[in-house]
Amino acid sequence: MSRETLEQSFRFLLEEPSRLVDPLVIAWHAGEPLAIPIEFYESAFTLLERMAPKSLKIENWFQSNATLITQDWCDLIQRWQH
Fold first, then answer.
1. Residue 28: which of 11, 45, 52 has the closest Cα?
2. How far apart are CA 39 and CA 58, in angstroms?
3. I want to staple 29 with a disulfide (CB 3.0 to 4.6 A). Which of 2, 7, 63, 81 is the partner?
4. How far apart are CA 72 and CA 51, in angstroms?
5. Pick the residue with more confidence: 12 or 17?
6. Is the model's pTM score more than 0.90?
7. Is residue 58 a contact partner of residue 23, using CB atoms and an 8 Å limit?
8. Can you name the residues that pair with 77 across neighbouring β-strands?
């Protein structure tokens, strides 16, 4: 997914308060989400954090078989666990 598509998706989601629940859970899955570079998620999480209301708690969940988990993935998850 391109950054532009991601930004449009977040904008669509966030523009209508009735679409939001607290916490907002975003489940990432695409066959195997850990096959996508970590930098994609760093960028996506940063973008979402910038766009979302500060009062909104956001949880990012991964649907994975966990075979690709490395220390870098653990670090990413810990960094973004709010």
1. 45
2. 19
3. 63
4. 25
5. 12
6. no
7. yes
8. none
What is the Cα 7 distance to its own chain's centre?
Answer: 12
**Single-letter code of the amino acid located at 62:** F
φ and ψ at 40, to 5 degrees?
-60, -45
End-to-end CA distance of the chain: 25
Which residue in the block uniquely carries the two structure tokens 């308060």? 17
Closest by Cα among 43, 31, 51, 46 to 82: 46
pLDDT tens digit sequence for 30-69 = 789 999 999 999 999 999 999 999 999 999 999 999 999 9
Using alpha carbons only, give the angle 43, 31, 15 rounded to the nearest 5 degrees.
45
- Tokens matching residue 13: 């989601």
Other CB atoms within 10 A of residue 60 CB: 18
Question: Cα 66 to the chain's mean position, in Å?
Answer: 17
